[in-house]
Design brief:
By secondary structure, the chain is of the alpha/beta class. The chain contains nine helices and eight strands. An eight-stranded parallel β-sheet has the order 1-2-3-4-5-6-7-8. It binds zinc ion.
Length: 268
C-alpha cells in the first residue's frame, strides 16, 4: 500500500528533534509522499531545503491567513521568484473567518495574489478555509475556478459544498477531524466526494486522529484517516488507499519529487 499525505507542516520546530524518526515511521506505514506546506516567508527556504534532501517530501510555499500581518513588502515578488526556480505547489493559502483581530480585506488580497501566482505558473494550490465558504466560493467562481487544480485541506464544509468546490476543479482533503465520531457534518461530507477528487492528509503535527496515543500528529497516522474514510464510504481500505494516492500524484504532478527526478525540475 502506498499513501500520499497531502498536507503537513513537519518543518515545525515542535518536531525538529524527532523529524527523522517521524519520516522513518511514515515510510514504514506506507506513506511514500509527504507534502510540506510553508506558512510564511520565514519557513520557505527550510521547506525547499527539506524537499531537496528527501525525495519523499513535496514542497509547497505560501502565506497562511494567520500570518499575513508579518509579511514583508516584497513577499509576492519573493514567492514568485522561488516558485520560478523550484517545483513547489502554492500553499498554505486561504481565508479564515474564525481568528480574532483579522482584516478580511487584507486576507482576501493576499489569498487572491497567491492564486494569481499559482495560475500564472500552473501550480496546484493547498487551500485553508474556515467559516468562509460563501466568500471562498465567490472568489473561485469569479476566477473561473482552479484550472490547474489543488485541494481544500482538512475539509470542514457541508456535503452540498463538496459539489460546489468539485465544480471549481478542487479536490477535497480529509484530516483527523473525520475520525471524530461527533463530527457528523464532515462524516456525511466524505460520502459525497467523487472518487477522483478525494485525498488524505494529517496536517501534522496538529489534528491528532481519535484513538491515537501520541502527543503530536505525524504522517504515519494518515492510515487512521484512511481507515475512517474507507469505513464511512463502505469501501475497502486498499481501494481508498489506491485511488487517493493516484489522485494526489495527478494533482501535484507539477511538483518536485512527485514524478520526475530532481535534475529535470527546471521549470518551463
Ligand atoms: Zn495546515
Amino acid at each position: 500500500m502506498k499513501l500520499f499525505d497531502v498536507h503537513t507542516h513537519i518543518q515545525d520546530d515542535r518536531v525538529r528533534d524527532i523529524r527523522a524518526a517521524i519520516m522513518a515511521r511514515a515510510m514504514a506505514a506506507g506513506v511514500d509522499r509527504i507534502m510540506v506546506c510553508g506558512l510564511h516567508e520565514q519557513d520557505w527556504d527550510q521547506v525547499l531545503a527539506m524537499a531537496h534532501d528527501h525525495d519523499c517530501l513535496v514542497p509547497s510555499l505560501g502565506i497562511h491567513p494567520w500570518f499575513i500581518q508579518g509579511r514583508s513588502v516584497s513577499w509576492a515578488e519573493v514567492l514568485r521568484k522561488k516558485l520560478e526556480t523550484h517545483g513547489a505547489a502554492v500553499g498554505e493559502i486561504g481565508l479564515d473567518r474564525m481568528i480574532p483581530d483579522r482584516d478580511d480585506q487584507d486576507q482576501e488580497q493576499v489569498f487572491v495574489t497567491q492564486l494569481n501566482i499559482a495560475r500564472d505558473l500552473g501550480r496546484p494550490v493547498n487551500i485553508h478555509c474556515r467559516s468562509a465558504w460563501g466568500r471562498m466560493a465567490d472568489i473561485l467562481k469569479e476566477r473561473g475556478g482552479l484550472p490547474q487544480g489543488g485541494i481544500i485541506h482538512s475539509w470542514s464544509g457541508s456535503a452540498d459544498m463538496v459539489r460546489v468546490f468539485e465544480g471549481f476543479g478542487a479536490s477535497i482533503s480529509f484530516s483527523g477531524s473525520v475520525t471524530r465520531p461527533d463530527n457528523k457534518k464532515v462524516r456525511k461530507a466524505v460520502c459525497s466526494v467523487s472518487r477522483d477528487r478525494l485525498v488524505l492528509e494529517t496536517d501534522s503535527p496538529d489534528i491528532l486522529p481519535t484513538g491515537v496515543n501520541a502527543m503530536l500528529n505525524e504522517p504515519a497516522f494518515v492510515r487512521v484517516v484512511l481507515e475512517s474514510v474507507a469505513f464511512l464510504r463502505h469501501e475497502s481500505v486498499d481501494e481508498v488507499a489506491a485511488y487517493t494516492y493516484d489522485n494526489a500524484m495527478r494533482i501535484f504532478s507539477a511538483c518536485e519529487n512527485v514524478h520526475a527526478p530532481k535534475e529535470l525540475h527546471g521549470m518551463e
